[in-house]
Amino acid sequence: MAFREDFLWGGATAANQCEGAYLEGGRGLANVDVMPAGVDRFSVGSGEMKMFRCDDDHFYPGHEAIDMYHNYKEDIALLAGMGFKCYRLSIAWSRIFPKGDELEPNEAGLQFYDNLFDECLKYGIEPLVTICHFDVPMHLIETIGSWRSRQMIDHYVHYCEVIFKRYKNKVKYWLTFNEINMILHFPFMGAGLCFEEGENKQQVKYVAAHHELVASALATKIGHEINPEFKIGCMLAAGNTYANTCHPADVWKSMEKDRENYFFIDVQSRGEYPAYALKQLEREGIEIPFEEGDVEILKNHTVDFISFSYYSSRLTSADPEVNKTTDGNAFETLKNPYLEASEWGWQIDPLGLRITMNALYDRYQKPLFIVENGLGAVDVPDANGYVKDDYRIDYLREHIKAMKEAVELDGVDLIGYTTWGCIDLVSAGTGEMKKRYGFIYVDKDNDGNGTLKRSKKKSYDWYKKVIESNGEQLA
């Protein structure tokens, strides 16, 4: 048997992509709520176009999403029907603290997650909770500039303290920030950062990153104090970068690209800024605002495990003429001639998952947890809402095989595997509904039309057998 007996099979969602009910139950407005669908989404998400309020000219798909807020009992029952051992979800920060800086939390928001966790536990499903899945209360963006301000650390830590105490007997596994490295690639979506004209964007991003890293370490400290049984992890948007050729300059470039993302996890897992990062920041004239105690906090409160998303590998060249880009998940990459691509241009590379797992495990020697993996595709349901998604089954099967080889043949310590978007939800990158990942089809289109009716796809029964057999039955 490749996987441990208590292996955590399941699926993953994010509050802002599935809950909807964006102003119900006392919830406040967040950066994720002002992300429009359509052509302006990337400009807003990258912090180039300021959109601090919703207008009548755009459609905001997250406002209703798939309305899990009102349908969570049905949804959790469907996940339980597949035999889920684990469900990764996120708490919407602005449901707990609508403005982000209140002293007292919003009880209606806390109660909603109490009910959600109770529903999971009723079926024996272990919640894995992302504390901040890109959410930042808009009030904190408008008043203090989000994570560019040191004050954010206190607001975040207060939020963590409240949820740790409230759910200490219901939740064991926590992630401090989702895809923390996305602050470099999609800064408004990832961390609520907007830029002024002429501003040094890199300086702003790395200052904000430092504040997040200190906040993550403090959350880890407090979490372990509140419940020593807590397992607290970091989360990386992963995928190794290959060199375009065996030219040493290409190999070096690929190493630099990987380090750009490893930097965050190096700090969260090893407890200090790596030498290469300090040198790079020095070269670029970027000053990190270390305050008294930061070094000790980072050093003494590292994470218990490394979680990551993996969708595809990347490819780079040192030659600027060659280094033309193709579509990807906010990451620029060359087209790899040896790989097929999804309908959204993501390159499908199961062996890349094994390579990435080995790279992370060799680097950190801490247990790994794959918390996102999946294929975004256009699903065409029949009259009964049934989708024959053999393409999704093929994708997941090959990735699970690679994952299995990393565990069985390479000795990688793996805690669990949660596929992304186990029920169809709004795409973070594009805001589309038609880019579907789920085992469960949700009747809703890109324009917000549909009944929201849930129905099982072919992959639903397939994944159920995978879980039942602990990964042995993949046919």
Automatic annotation (TrEMBL):
Q: Which residues form the active site?
A: 372
The Enzyme Commission number assigned here is: 3.2.1.86
Q: Return the similarity comment.
A: Belongs to the glycosyl hydrolase 1 family.
Record InterPro entries: GH, GH_1_N_CS, Glyco_hydro_1, Glyco_hydro_1_AS
Name of the protein this chain belongs to: 6-phospho-beta-glucosidase
Q: Which domain of life is it from?
A: Bacteria
Q: Enzyme class, one word?
A: hydrolase
Gene Ontology MF terms: 6-phospho-beta-glucosidase activity
Keyword line: Glycosidase, Hydrolase
What is the gene name? ascB
